[in-house]
Design a protein that fits this description.
This protein is of the alpha/beta class. 39% of the residues lie in helices and 21% in strands. It is globular and about 65 Å long.
């Protein structure tokens, strides 16, 4: 590695709130690029590297630093899948040497089995997994304990684990409107797009205000997580595109409403992991089992920032257009009143019936399959 100064946390212009965000933003960029990030917990230091992005040159360099002390951090979901049952917490496996073939097997291979004792993950380990999740890569991290002297002069971004753990709430607190404009839509010509900077994910968030909803009453609201395949390309594997377009049209015909379009592709796992899960589903895996193979629990999404968007738009009381009780609970927990809920029907197809029943049976979504099938039946 070339000798450059470590980028450390500092207070910019006396604004420590922004320092937390800036430092973690830089750490995410480094981690997603496959470079190690220096994690700090008090005086303790460790290098964290994405298990899926490690290459041989980096592995060799880290191995020299590790001196047999490296370990692989895996999520509870991945550990359950490879045989460490029962388990509800992340864990670590010792790596006397950093063997990338072993790392790939333990982190990603369907047929993998635990090959060593699993020790409990500590605060630095769990922070490393949080960095992986924020970076939208597999939740599997190579961790190497180091000293400050050992990495002095290396081109590393350093981040405190407290900053990592606070990042999501800091992002929600930093939400602000950065642009808005009328955008007439098919079936909903009186529509305004309001763009927010911050929140979940790696892009801006969008509120679509349809018509003129009465903010003094319960505003019809849908929290819609981005789905590239369904929303844009009309994928038959899910009902997302149907729910998106039909919700907007329903709002246009019923005194308006607000749809929040949120950067949470693949239930918060990111588009690359969503495609990995789709590949597993094509091989016969259930949608949630496929996610568990990749190390993810049922749902990685957070909705506190969505409630913050609604508050900035002047909404305090909503009718939630959703089948997902998790969204209703999140809106309530954020201090908004949920006056009522309303189901959002999609379109059942031969490709998504198993997906819909899995959401109902395994994640508690309120989906009336009989009503959906009746809706899809040919009309006389």
């Amino acid at each position: 590695m070339p000798k450059l100064p470590i980028t450390k946390s500092r207070t910019l212009f006396g604004r420590p709130h922004e320092t937390c965000l800036i430092t973690v933003d830089r750490a995410i960029a480094e981690f997603r690029a496959g470079r190690p990030v220096l994690l700090r917990d008090g005086e303790r230091l460790a290098l964290a590297l994405s298990a899926e992005l490690a290459d041989e040159a980096l592995a060799q360099g880290l191995d020299e630093l590790a001196q047999g002390q490296a370990h692989l951090v895996l999520s509870a979901a991945r550990l359950r899948r490879i045989g460490a049952k029962p388990r509800s917490e992340a864990g670590i496996l010792a790596m006397p040497s950093i063997d990338l073939a072993r790392v790939e097997t333990l982190a990603l291979k369907v047929e993998a089995k635990v090959d060593a004792p699993v020790a409990p993950a500590d605060a630095v380990d769990t922070a490393a997994l949080e960095l992986a999740r924020l970076s939208l890569v597999l939740p599997a991290t190579i961790l190497v304990p180091v000293t400050a002297e050992a990495v002095a002069g290396e081109p590393l971004v350093e981040v405190g684990i407290d900053a990592l753990n606070a990042y999501r709430s800091e992002q929600a607190a930093s939400l602000k409107i950065v642009g808005r404009a009328p955008v007439p839509l098919e079936g909903a010509p009186e529509t305004e797009f309001v763009v927010f900077r911050g929140g979940e994910g790696l892009r801006d968030q969008v509120a679509i205000i349809v018509g003129k909803p009465d903010l003094a009453s319960a505003v019809p609201v849908r929290l819609h997580s981005a789905c590239l395949t369904g929303d844009l390309f009309g994928s038959l594997k899910c009902d997302c595109g149907d729910q998106l377009r039909e919700t907007v049209q329903w709002m246009a015909q019923n005194d308006g409403g607000i749809l929040l379009y949120l950067d949470q592709e693949g239930r918060g796992n990111g588009i690359s992991n969503k495609m990995r899960a789709y590949k597993l589903q094509s091989q016969g895996w259930d949608t949630y089992d496929a996610d568990e193979v990749l190390g993810f629990d049922l749902d990685q999404r957070h909705f506190d920032f969505a409630a913050a968007m609604l508050k900035q738009l002047g909404v305090s009381r909503v009718t939630a257009l959703t089948n997902n009780p998790l969204k209703v609970g999140a809106i309530k927990a954020a201090g908004l009143e949920v006056a009522a809920t309303q189901r959002v029907l999609g379109r059942p197809t031969a490709h998504n019936v198993r997906y819909l029943t899995s959401k109902r049976d395994r994640a508690g979504h309120i989906i009336d399959m009989d009503a959906l099938m009746a809706r899809a039946a040919p009309k006389d």
